[in-house]
Amino acid sequence: MDELRELYQQVILDHNKNPKNFGKIEPANRSAEGYNPLCGDRIDLYLQVEDDVIKDISFEGAGCAISKASTSVMTTVLKGKSTAEAERLFRKFQKLITSEPGAEPDLIEMGKLAIFCGVREFPLRVKCAGLAWHTMLAALKNENKPVSTE
Amino acid sequence: MDSPLLDQSPAQSVNRFDVERIREDFPILRQKVRGKPLVYLDSAATSQKPQVVIEALSHYYQAENANIHRAVYYLSEIATNAYEGTRKKIKEFINANSIKEIVFVRGTTEGINLVASSYGRKNVKESDEIVISAMEHHSNIVPWQMLCEETGAKLRVIPINDDGELIVEEFEKLLNKKTKLVAIVHTSNSLGTINPIKRLVDIAHDRNVPVLVDGAQALPHGKIDVKKLGCDFFVFSSHKVFGPTGVGVLYAKEALLEKMPPYQGGGDMIKSVTFEKTLYNDLPYRFEAGTPNIAGVIGLSKALDYVAGIGYDKIAAYEHELLNYATTVLSTIKPLRIIGTAKEKAAVISFVIEGIHPHDVGTILDRDGIAVRTGHHCTQPVMARFNVPATSRASFALYNTKAEADLLAKGIHNVINLMN
What we know:
The complex is a heterodimer.
Chain A: H1 2-7, H2 10-17, E1 30-36, E2 41-50, E3 53-62, H3 65-78, H4 83-98, H5 107-110, H6 126-140
Antiparallel strand pairs in A: 1-2, 2-3
Chain B: H1 19-24, E1 32-33, E2 36-37, E3 39-40, H2 51-64, H3 74-93, E4 102-105, H4 108-123, E5 129-133, H5 142-151, E6 154-158, H6 168-174, E7 179-185, H7 197-206, E8 211-214, H8 226-229, E9 233-237, E10 248-252, H9 254-259, E11 270-273, E12 278-280, H10 294-310, H11 312-331, E13 336-339, E14 348-353, H12 358-366, E15 370-371, E16 373-375, H13 380-385, E17 391-395, H14 402-419
Parallel strand pairs in B: 3-15, 5-6, 5-7, 7-8, 8-9
Antiparallel strand pairs in B: 1-2, 4-10, 9-10, 11-12, 13-14, 14-17, 16-17
Helix pairs in contact in B: 2-10, 3-10, 4-5, 11-14, 12-14
């Protein structure tokens, strides 16, 4: 039960119910689709990137609480960040959600993203938390085909 | 070594349906998951196996393992008799005319692919039509789509109503001179709907259209009589009916099978081979290339004995009671909506909970030891029809109890509390 509480923290539930940066921004010069067909999780991610800085970012779509909250939190974290910083955070986030349960990630450095620490106790749900980030990376690289973490 | 069709299983000694006695036959159900007793509600995906099936597999490998057919030594004779004895048993079990009509395959999926590839390629031409329904499993959609792509034929789809029932009048309208085959599911894995197969077959046969029935979800829960149904092809999987994985059966009317070209080439499906010419074997061996899953077939034999020992009447009555009970219990949960409310229904309950994604439901229930399936259940068109991305599905079998339905309901209340 404690692990469930850690996974479904209040902040995650709040983002699930009232996601931030939800909707399509105009203009958006980068976009990508994330789709996990087995789950049915789907994200359309929109970014406005100027001089290698993410000026604006938003998403649409539907999915489980973990994928939706992860996308919502990601957009709040990345807005205003450089693309290089976004890629660095991608790697750190991946490490966080896939680290061994005993490992002690630097939660302070992770900031808002630390709330997803509980995901590592649920290996089957790592793909849900990671979908948004993989989609973001694809958008930055201007990849056309949908991204999947399944 | 093989037992007769109506082999007495331990469960037959009880007059009424004694589920606790049945549960003792399934060793896996005794275990705890995450400290909680396992509540296995995913039998539509695969059933658990009784001890007699597990022992049959072990016994075969310990005492009887040999390749079947053609050898003249003791072990091969034993293995061949067990394998061919199962074919005879299945012929009686589903009331086929001849063992020539019973082809062993890997499962329902391969059975359908065999028909699509062999019967389909021979009989379906450009602008012909194949009729399926809106509630088919992907395994009864994709092989036909592949055939259509190859031949230029068209796939036509019988619609379903809001309860998840087939609209029979629309089915009649879809049939025409171009229709070459109807491929239809007997019992839907995601909605639980039991289709009126005999009625559909009669309608199709009036227009000389043959019918394939996907019986994967039907055979574990009710008596199948292919003569009564009248269908031309009937396919099922061993693992859904308490047998091992990797084995299935294709029943096909002999007259149709006789005219079908081989599906795969190789050993066992031939009479003689030279580099100039190969003579194919007789039915049903012509459709069984290569060494089959001998142990799996023998395990299936024991599984069918097990089911026959309990009796389909008792199984169906008990599962109906379970379905009604679970439906009533779940219906009291306000934000829960059941998808699939057909009048004729198997013990499958697909549901969605307002504001909570099925994968969150599945993860939280799992922590209570409850195994339900979440996702699209290989029926994406059904999800689209009901405008949901996925559902949670509890599917019951003869070893489930009302107490487990209560635990499911309790677990769902817990999900709702946790997510709000």
